[in-house]
Structures are given as structure tokens and as C-alpha cells.
Amino acid sequence: MTRSFPFHPFPSGWYQVAYVDDVPAGHVQALHYFGRDLVLFRTEGGALRVFDAHCVHLGAHLGVGGKVVGESLRCPFHAWRWGVDGACVEVPYSDRPPAAARMRAWPVREVNGLVMVFHDETGVAPGWEVPVVSEVGHDEWTPFEKRRWKIRTQPQEMAENAVDRAHFRYVHGTLTVPESEAEADGPVLRVRSKMKLATPMGEMDGAIESDAWGFGFGVVRFQGIVETVLLSSVVPIDGEHVDVWFSFSVKKLPSRGATRGVGAALVADIEKQLAEDTPIWENKAHLTAPALCPDDGPIGLLRRWAKQFYPG
Ligand code: FES
Ligand SMILES: [Fe+2]
């Protein structure tokens, strides 16, 4: 049997494509996600947009040499300008722009410091919004510690990791197989896990609360030595690869040095876990009819929840 992913088309949902801070007015950037070339830009007035990259005039990539001009994006090839709604606002050498010419604009939001794009292959409008996470930007929590990886897998495979209780013991070395409970609620999957952790301070109880809004937005709260929140987004680049965005914030301890130390230790531990999972993900096959045992945890529930994100 050779490895192939049955996850087609790309799942619908909100996905991170940038940090808000990295997209000032006038910024233009080429992106490649969902097997598509895209362009991200912010107008002088502050409007943020993501369009399909290729100019509908003669196909130039607007993210390679395109320029923001006021409230429009100017193509590098023949200088047509595209407005924030995707319509052509100027053909500089003609007063007869084709009325129907329009760039495809994807829904975009700026929330929790992240730039999120809604992707649906069939063009359906978003049926839910990315929730505001109260810890983000709060005085008692640290600014984001950011990490990013490119991994040869697909979003559903990484999502399954949260409910695959046995792997925590055998891949990550938890002292016990965690207790995991999962509940699906529309686009949201809530997973609650408890486990014994080996720490430099000895054995202790750990708890993880993970709430996933589709595959592209997850909020994971860790309780243990210190409270930590992780915003995660697993974004398909193409049919084989994902971009993984992790943004950590730690609840501040009385001493700044202690916060930094404990926060760094937790981030390092999550990086270690990701490094442990990666060779499994990059080489495993996705079995549609796996041979599960009753103690494998809520893998079936995750797969039923996942179905809603595949259009058609
Ligand atoms: S290809 Fe963009 S203006 Fe011609
Ligand atoms: Fe894992």
C-alpha cells in the first residue's frame, strides 16, 4: 500500500495566513495556500484583502511587483488597478475597462492578532466566525511567542493527534495514557485530557483543554506548572504539505524571569512533541477503516466531526 491522502477537496474553514503586525499599510505579499497562488495586501486606508494572485487581465502575479495605490492594488504588468471589492477601478491607457473584470476576493478577518482567511473550494460564505480569545493582548499574559513549521501531512491527520490518547504515552513519554473526552458542537470540537507528566520538579498532574474550530483555528490551554494558551492553525499549502502556525502566550508570574523561564520550557516541550510527531505524520498512511480497539479514544467521533468541512 502506498501513502495517499483522501482529503479532497481542501477542507473549508478559517486559516491563518499572517500576523496582523506583519501587514502594515502598503504591504503586498505573495502567498501560496490551498494549492493556489494568492496575494495579501493592505491599502493606505487600512483595508486588508486577500485576492487570487493572477491578474484577470493577462495573468501577472499581483504579489510579485504589485503596488498599493491609495485604496487599490496596481498590477505590475499593464498598471490596471483593482479596488478593495475586486473590481477594476482604472485602466490607465483606456477609458473602457471591461465591466465584468473582477479579481476573486477571499473573506478575511483580523482577530487575536492573526490574519485569517476563509477558504471554501465551492465559494460558500463563512458559516461561523473565529472567536476572540480573551487572554490574547491581556495585561496578565505575555505577548506571543511565535513558531512555524512546514510538515508533509494534511490538517485532519494533525487534528487526529489530539484525540489519539495512546500515542501520548508511546510517542511523547507521558507517564500514563491520558484520559480524553471529546465533544463535537457544530464546527467546534472540544477535547479535554488529563495526564501525569514527568517534570524537572517530579511527577505532576497536567490538563489540556483543546477547542478546534475546524482545522484552521485551535485554542489549546495547558494547565500544569504555568497556565499557557496556544493558538494554532494548520493550513494546507498543497495536497501534500501544511504550514503550522503556533502562537503561545503564558500567564505572567510575579517575577519576569520566572515567566520567561517557565514559558520557554513549555514552548520547548511543545517543540519537542512536534518533533516527535513529525516523522510519524510524514510517513503514515491515512486508513479510512482502521483496526481500532475500544481504548483508542474518540477517533471515530473526530472523523465524523471532520466530514462537515469537506464540501460536496
Ligand atoms: S496582467 Fe495585470 S494589468 Fe495586465
Ligand atoms: Fe502528538
Structural class of the secondary elements? alpha+beta
Determine and state the CATH class of the largest domain: Alpha Beta
The N- and C-terminal alpha carbons lie at a distance of 27 Å
- Small molecules (ligands, ions, cofactors) in the structure: FE2/S2 (inorganic) cluster, fe (ii) ion
What does this structure look like?
The chain has 312 residues and is α+β, with helices and mostly antiparallel strands. It folds into 2 domains: 13-119, Rieske Iron-sulfur Protein (3-layer Sandwich), CATH 2.102.10; 145-309, Naphthalene 1,2-dioxygenase Alpha Subunit, Chain A, domain 1. The strands form 4 sheets. The protein has a 7-stranded antiparallel β-sheet. The protein has a 4-stranded antiparallel β-sheet with strand order 2-3-4-9, with no helix packed on it. Helices cover 15% and strands 36% of the residues. The site of FE2/S2 (inorganic) cluster has 9 residues, from loops.
Annotation keywords:
single chain, 312 residues, alpha+beta, Rieske Iron-sulfur Protein, 2 domains, 7-stranded antiparallel β-sheet, 4-stranded antiparallel β-sheet, 4 helices, binds FE2/S2 (inorganic) cluster, binds fe (ii) ion
